[in-house]
Specification:
Length: 124
């Protein structure tokens, strides 16, 4: 064979390998890029699911807080009204104790004892 032709064949073979390697590298890069994009899309979907879950949870927490605030407001109002009733009752007791009537005092103490015994036997 002609040395020139043999040299040319070697050069063609040498450059063909480089071009194929370049093409292979480019296709590997493209495939890797597609894989990275696919991974990114999956990660974004996962994050989107987590964000929507957190949004629902925060909405549920807000509803729970609002319901507890309403309940506490009602309890506060009930306590205020109970305080008013208790204050009126205490005023009546003061009036009874100020009269110093032994008969009224005896009746009051006896009624409390009877009431206590009735409640005690009913709750037992």
């Amino acid at each position: 064979m002609n040395p020139r032709r043999e040299n040319r064949n070697n050069r063609v073979a040498l450059f063909d390998g480089i071009e194929e390697g370049g093409i292979r590298a480019q296709s590997l890069y493209s495939s890797s890029h597609e894989i990275d994009e696919h991974d990114n899309e999956q990660a974004m979907d996962g994050l989107q699911d987590r964000v929507s879950l957190l949004k629902r949870l925060s909405g549920d927490i807000q509803e729970e807080v609002d319901s507890h605030n309403r309940m506490l407001d009602r309890m506060g109002n009930d306590m205020d009204s109970s305080r008013g009733v208790l204050s009126g009752t205490m005023d009546k007791f003061k009036m009874v104790f100020e009269t110093k009537s032994s008969r009224r005092m005896f009746t009051l103490v006896a009624s409390f004892v009877v009431l206590f015994l009735i409640v005690y036997y009913l709750t037992r």
